[in-house]
Amino acid sequence: MIPFVDLKAQYASIKTEVNAAIQGVLESCQFTLGSEVVAFEQEFAAYCQGQHGIGVNTGTSALHMALLAAGIGPGDEVITVPFTFVATVAAIQYAGATPVLVDIDPKTFTIDVGAIEAAITPRTKAIMPVHLYGQPADMDPILEIARRHGLIVIEDACQAHGAEYKGRRVGSIGDMGCFSFYPGKNLGACGEGGMVVTNNAEYARTIRMLRDWGAEKKYHHVMKGYNFRLEGIQGAVLRVKLRHLEAWTEARRRAAASYERHLAGSGIATPQAAAYARHVYHVYAIRTQHRQAWQEQLLAAGIQTGVHYPIPVHLQPAYADLGYGVGAFPHAERASAEVLSLPMFPELSEAQCETVCAALRALAPVDSPALAMAGAA
Questions:
Q1: Which DSSP string do the residues of 72-106 spell out, in sequence order?
Q2: Which H or E run contains 341?
Q3: Which long-range contacts (CB under 8 A, 24 or more apart) does 222-230 make?
Q4: Thinking of the domain 245-363, which architecture would CATH place it in?
Q5: Contact status, residue 305 vs residue 248, Cβ threshold 8 Å
Q6: Whether residue 217 lies in the annotated active site
Q7: Where are the alpha helices (DSSP H) in the chain?
């Protein structure tokens, strides 16, 4: 079986380092925040080319805290996309604000920058681009629009650790960047975790208080806060993994190049990395109009796959209150119906890539009608 993700292989490669890091926390008894979290915050912020890192318990909390630090709340609107994990939209609602959705670019799966300005109203306070699958959104025009309208830019970089936009690391390009360390992410904890990266010292100070019951110092609560602290063990594990992240990223990129090479001429629509991007391939999603059949046949051949994401947020029953219906965002809706995520993890071998591609080519012979990337034709 070729797994979709192989966390056991990753652990086996760094077992001694991880076990020693966890043992160190057990001996120090710094289980919540503590020196390992502080060190990781500094190291990860520097990795992202940012000045401040604030560790929290999840990527969702990172998004939520960034919005609150920016002063966003009831009556405000935040522009984002419907083709993302629901946490992007949920965090906006947690802050009491209203999500305003715009469609995606069909080639990159990131926000259609040409649709942003029409969605701005007097209530708009922020733009939240999503660097989906590890591909950066087109940040320069987003920042230019934000500057003209006095808006905050909060990057949802939860799937994009180490991704670059024109040589700049995502997460430190906008006003704040938010990351998830869910176990399956490119940089994943042994549990949950998240971080906000920013160059704004006041935002950092506010988020540090918000994550820890609004306290400036122990038992001195200057604002109403939350219990969103990062655990010491996660900080220690993530410090170990951060040292390997660049090597793992290049391994992902090699696997993506292998897929591209072996699927060339097959008629299968493969991901398109933007010219401005260093894509880090958290997900490698092809497109097919026969997704269910292909997924079933690949599984029968011993190949696990995933779907990210089968239903856009605006069509999820839980988010019907947003008021959007079928047809509101055609590119997002088509992508949701067609994307199929292939196995992708740093330990994926060339032989495994060849096996996956051979199985796919058998499902999509060259003489069959090619599925062009939506909007590319």
A1: --TT-EEEE-SSS-THHHHHHHHTT-EEEE-PBPT
A2: strand 339-342
A3: 226/61, 226/65, 227/57, 228/56, 228/57, 228/58, 228/61, 228/64, 228/65, 229/32, 229/33, 229/55, 229/56, 229/57, 230/33, 230/37, 230/55, 230/56, 230/57, 230/193, 230/194, 230/195
A4: Alpha-Beta Complex (3.90)
A5: no
A6: no
A7: 7-28, 35-47, 59-69, 87-94, 116-119, 139-149, 201-210, 232-242, 245-263, 291-300, 330-338, 350-363
Query: What is the rounded CA–CA span in Å between residue 206 and residue 226?
Result: 12
> Given the structure tokens 């006041």, which residue do they identify?
202
Show the tokens assigned to 29: 């008894």
pLDDT score of 10: 96
pLDDT in tens, 72-103: 999 999 999 999 999 999 999 999 999 999 99
Identify the pLDDT of residue 370: 42
Backbone dihedral angles phi then psi of residue 341, each to the nearest 5 degrees: -90, 125
Chain centre to alpha carbon of residue 183: 13
Report the predicted TM-score, pTM, of the whole model to 2 decimal places: 0.94
Cβ atoms within 10 Å of 9's Cβ, excluding its own: 13
Give the domain ranges of the chain. 7-242, 245-363
Low-confidence ranges of the chain (pLDDT < 50): 366-377
Both tokens of 168, joined, read 């700049």
Q: What tokens does 75 get? A: 């009556």
> Residue 71 is encoded by which pair of tokens?
């002063």
Give the CA angle between residues 231, 233, 235 to the nearest 5°. 70
Tell which residue, 38, 36, 154, 14, has the closest CA to residue 95. Answer: 154
pLDDT at residue 365 in the model: 67
The widest CA-to-CA distance across the chain, in whole angstroms, is 70
CA–CA gap between residue 339 and residue 332 (Å, rounded) = 10
For residue 39, the cross-strand partners are: none
Helix (H) / strand (E) element for 221: namely strand 220-221
Look up the CATH number of domain 7-242.
3.40.640.10
pLDDT digits (tens, 9 = 90+) for 333-370: 999 999 999 999 999 999 999 999 999 999 976 444 44
Q: Which of 8, 185, 217, 218 is catalytic?
A: 185
| Counts for the chain of helices (H) and strands (E), in that order | 12, 14
Contact at 8 Å (CB) between 80 and 59? no
